[in-house]
Batch of 2 targets.
Target 1
Amino acid sequence: MKIKLCGLFQNCDIDFVNEAKPDFIGFVFAKSRRQVSAEWAKAMRPKLSSVITPVGVFVNESVTTIAKLLNEGVIEMAQLHGNESEIYIRELKTRTKKPIIRAVQVISRADIEEKQDTVADFLLLDHGAGGTGESFDWSIVGQVKKPFFLAGGLKADNIEQAIRAAKPFAVDLSSGVETDGKKDRGKILEIVRRMRNE
């Protein structure tokens, strides 16, 4: 089971993930309380362990901006949370050849069905708008054609249940490894240790 820890925004967060070694981390470039600048991400990238894949999180960002960050190696994957069309995703893939994650706001099974045939490489199934710390009904996931990240309200006390119910390729945590809105080293180490022992 792969693990993604999203929303790193402080220098110490890099130290925490380097110690824990999740598979992926997320830099949020979209407007959010965890938003980071391209400059900050560029400065942090060389400090990130080579075994961790950095993912950029975007909402309706220009293809040019995302392609530049991917091609410069600041991030290795792009995660799209806006109204990006299939034409947009194709254009991005043409310009970078790097993997794309298409986020889906899951209210019902129909939301997943609608995005099954995307040209993106992965789906990310999240509760509503994302970043809410709320989870959705994992039992509606069913069969999904593409490998997917499961997000939304995941934390130490529900993650095993979520994995059993949805069978994702990876789990994606943000607020679940925070205390008072900041990444918590203890929670990060605990969740990665727990997942690695699965």
Target 2
Amino acid sequence: MAHMLFHFRLPWSGFEHAHVILGGESHVALAEGLQNALWSAGGAPHQHRTDSLSAAFRNLDAATEADLTKRYEALCAHYRMSPTRNNRGVAHENGSIESAHGHLKAAIRDALLMRGTPDFLDLTGYRAFIDEIVGRRNAARAKRIAAERAYLQPLPATRTTDFEEVIVTVSSTGGFTLRKVFYTVPSRLIGHRLRVRLHDDRLEVFMGGTHLLTLPRGRAHSDGRHDQVVNYRHVIHALRKKPMALLNLVYRDKLFPRPAYRRAFEALSAHPTAREDGLQDHRRPFSPCP
């Protein structure tokens, strides 16, 4: 899975925090990663410096860029930090983080080699793996970190916003499209307006003040093609009424819970009488297994 790391570091003590980012540089990723780092450190420095954020601002119009700048300034103000940025092309201004970032990436590569495989069951497991590596590095600097923590500003009572909020309407197809990605939801929500909190790795879906469900965040393909995030439980009832619709469904392959289901479907589809048998089976009355 393509990803980046938000890497936070206190230069004097060497305290660091790393957060896995799935969608590239964005305000949402910055807000989530920075706040996780500050709460892990137990305080906030008086100044926060980032790189030029050129990737986050690429291809944005002036109004959107100004809005993101205000949001970043508001984020820093919440923690009473002065926001600063490195000047683009001035390499020495990155010195306190670039070298440490290289060492962290080397430590991750070594840990993956020792582990024997780069594969993880899920994002949670991978994030725990990164946290363990960073935790060991911080443990080696425990005395300096404890000394520097005494000079950090106290944290506010609560975190501030680390998501974007969007209103969507569930279409008759049982889902909604957001940022070129189609998401399925339970069919009972068709026609309803939902409030969606867009995080870097997930969508939190609300109706009014009630949390309904959490969806993994999808992203459009690099060539601009749309993508889909599909839960077969959301659409299986409709497909039972139209069994042949599965053949040409745009997101068909994403419906299968496991690869075995896809292989079974391909084997059945390859049978010369699969279409006829499928229709005949659909007409038969359903009888549960004993």
